[in-house]
Amino acid sequence: MVRKGERPPLEAQLIDLADEVAYNTADLDDGYGSGLITLDQILEGSDLFRRLYLRIQGDFPTASEGILVSETIRHLIDVLVTDLVRATRDRIRSESLDSVDAVRRFPTRVVGFGPETAALGRQLKGFLRSNLYHHPDLEGPRRKAKVLIADLFQYYEEDPARLPPAHYGRMEDYGIHRVVCDYIAGMTDSFARKIRVRISSHSG
């Protein structure tokens, strides 16, 4: 449950950062695999990736570039997750946080990376934002996605009863805009397109 002015419980905080690790590393892998970003760009744009890549390349000098990149991303996940666990554990111990209420009342989020790893993570996100998310080849699909999301939002906002019962029942607590946003955010691409086809058939 969300409590105004308080931090989320540990599980929710952990989910947020676990998603961040998963999304950033998957996007890095997909961007390289699709050819939208090159190895040279990644090595220049991410100090953590470069550090790990050079170490792995030294251990396996005959491995192909693709194998080295995949292995580096695997190690990147391990470094981020390990630091997240260590830094969070140390923070809980140093602040003597021994209950859910103590976590909620803490002035900042408890789950997080150490300072150095947090900075390296921000650098990686900045690299992806500049070199992948705003890549010219993605402008067309991005525009289509914006139109799709706008259509879905309008569809459910005009008639909230179209929402599944579990989501419809949350409106009193969170409001229609938040509930619709959460519902759309949880859709898979294929399901969102399926709903868009349904909208088109109703309006046609």
Q: Would you kindly provide a written description of the structure presented here, covering whatever features stand out?
A:
- The chain is mainly alpha-helical.
- The chain has helices spanning 10-34, 39-45, 47-59, 65-94, 100-105, 115-133, 139-158, 165-168, 171-174, 176-185, 189-203.
- The two termini are 41 Å apart.
- The model has no long low-confidence stretch (mean pLDDT 92).
- Helix content is 75%, strand content 0%.
- The protein has 2 domains: 10-134, no CATH class; 140-203, no CATH class.
- The longest helix has 30 residues, at 65-94.
- The chain is built from 11 helices and no strands.
What are the defining features of this structure?
204 residues, mainly alpha, 2 domains, 0% strand, flat
Describe this structure in a few short sentences.
The chain is an all-alpha fold and 204 residues long. Helix content is 75%, strand content 0%.
Indicate how many domains the architecture comprises.
2
* Helix share bin: over 70%
Structural class, from secondary structure content?
A: mainly alpha
What is the count of β-strands? 0
Number of helices: 11
The average pLDDT score comes to 92
Tell me the fraction of residues in β-strands, as a range. Answer: under 5%
> What's the story with the biggest beta sheet?
none
Radius of gyration, rounded? Answer: 21 Å
Quaternary status: single chain
Shape: flat
* Poorly predicted runs: none
User: SSE order, as H and E?
Assistant: HHHHHHHHHHH
N- and C-termini, Cα separation: 41 Å
